[in-house]
């Protein structure tokens, strides 16, 4: 699996297919395989004649694990994504993120806009501006001696998911604590000038309103993923067909 170094952090990524490039940024406690390969996104996009690039975020998958929360500020993680675009010598790419990856994608679109052709924000809503992703006590669940010691349902769900993805629990706890700032201000969202699609499950009760978020970004579209919660929306057929239509229609 190819990799490169940015700020002394090794970022591992996959690079498959040919055509217009699209960069995929996974969510918290996930990785490129769990978020994009297994749900069929890589095969869907390569069949659509696209070059698919997906990275393991710092602290996740095969990339470098860091234990200082300050090393997981969203600006730094967005910088990794922008550095990968430069490393591959690409002029502009479509960028799609899910959950934490969508928050990172929004920062890439706002602060590295010349590198972005369009942005797809999945599993996200007004939490981008209202703060801060997952509750801080999820970090405590990740650091508990065992899952049996976790009583909070949300913490237990993320601890179970992190164990299923064979994640470094200590690194994830640091990531959660370091990335809990609001990703962007309303003014920064309003200044995004690339086409944007915001998508979330209609039963997703953790992200805020995707429609209200889309209304803050000039020309952005909102997509409802029917009857899906945060975990199940990522591989949904409605999400995939909506993304393909958006990519076909964007300039």
Percent in helix: 25-40%
pLDDT < 50 stretches: none
Distance between the termini: 32 Å
Nearest-integer average pLDDT: 94
Helix count, per DSSP?
Answer: 11
Class derived from helix and strand content: alpha/beta
How would you describe the shape?
globular
Question: Which terms summarize this structure?
Answer:
251 residues, alpha/beta, Rossmann fold, eight-stranded mixed beta sheet, 8 strands, globular
List the helices and strands and how they pair.
Elements: E1 3-6, E2 9-16, E3 20-25, H1 32-37, H2 41-47, E4 50-55, H3 74-87, E5 93-98, H4 100-111, E6 116-122, H5 127-130, H6 137-143, H7 153-164, H8 169-178, H9 186-190, E7 196-201, H10 210-215, E8 221-225, H11 237-249
Helix pairs in contact: 3-4, 6-7, 6-8
